[in-house]
Amino acid sequence: MANYIQHSPLAVRHYREQIGLSREFLAKKLDIALSTLEKGEQQDRAFSYNQIQKLAKFLFVPDFYLLTDQIQDNDIPETVDHRNINPFDDSEDLEYKSQKALHELIDNRNNLIYAFESLDESIDQFSLKLSGNDATSDAELIRYWLGVDQAKFKTQNNDDYYRSWRTLIEKNNVMVIELPNIRIKSEGMAIYYDTLPIIAILSSGQSPSRRLFTMIHELVHLGLRQSAIDGDILSDNLKLEQYCNQVAGHVLLPKNTADNLYDSTVNLADNINRIRKSVKVSRQAIAIQLKLLGLIDQLSLDAYLSEIDAKADGTNANFGIAQKTRTHNQFGKVYLQQVIAAVWHNAIPITTAMKMLRLKDADDLMYLEQKVFS
């Protein structure tokens, strides 16, 4: 006879509903009888301790949360979903994967906050605030806030200036995280907090050249004080998404600069190479802005993006990439610097840092130390 552990039916039901899962979905995924789950939401002795552990892990809570009626608040801001999801898709499975991605982001943010606190360092509040009604002015405000005109940009390993722009954003206390191999019909997410808001880039299928535009698009959401899960941002017909695209385009390539440098008698690739020498942004970002400004048509944009993607095909895949490289791409320079600095000052143990960064080999941490402080 199974040994049942006393739990809270209220807690089990609350944390299940909190992430929008049905009992049927939970039963299928955890291989627990539906009747057992139904009983567990009504009676306080229906699960073994092993089942409680499985439930807690799947619901993204510590197991002791399921043992008490004292409900803990969710630290995830309410997000607006801009994805155009096919009703024939397995929407509940997609929702769970989305929740898993969100919780991973929050865990990463909590770890970074812990690294700051361990060094007794404060984090400045996020100060960018956009109007939402003037794309050009909002873009100028972002450029000023980032210090774009004073920044020095460089390319690194064919990243098309993406990492330089990413580091510039991170230095303004925005956490930028890449989520590789997570497919939730999204290109990017913005999770707004007054302190240390999050930009997530779903990097599978997006070359570094393309990620730059996605990242600035998500920064616009944060400047509008919004949390959003975006779908295909270039194909979305929502006015808000189109506005974020307009602002992002002006941030990366201001209209007056495009008007001065674009030559309609020259082919698109040569135009982009010429503009890129002046503005130091990615080729795909320039092409997207030229389309937004009406200087090229959709067919020209699609052909150019396809050509760039074909050249980059395979270079942004994670298959065969060493864990240390994957970690560097995922967390970025500033995040890694903060965690490693905490280790230097004996503020956190090296084992804790490796757990934060999901590393198994201490040599990988040494590699990252050299990489981000060189």
Automatic annotation (TrEMBL):
Lineage: Bacteria, Pseudomonadati, Pseudomonadota, Gammaproteobacteria, Moraxellales
Native source species: Moraxella cuniculi DSM 21768
Molecular function GO labels: DNA binding
Organism domain of life: Bacteria
Protein name, as recorded: Zn-dependent peptidase ImmA, M78 family
Gene3D superfamilies: 1.10.10.2910, lambda repressor-like DNA-binding domains (1.10.260.40)
Family to which this protein belongs: Belongs to the short-chain fatty acyl-CoA assimilation regulator (ScfR) family.
HTH cro/C1-type domain ranges (all copies): 12-67
Database matches in Pfam families: HTH_3 (PF01381), Peptidase_M78 (PF06114)
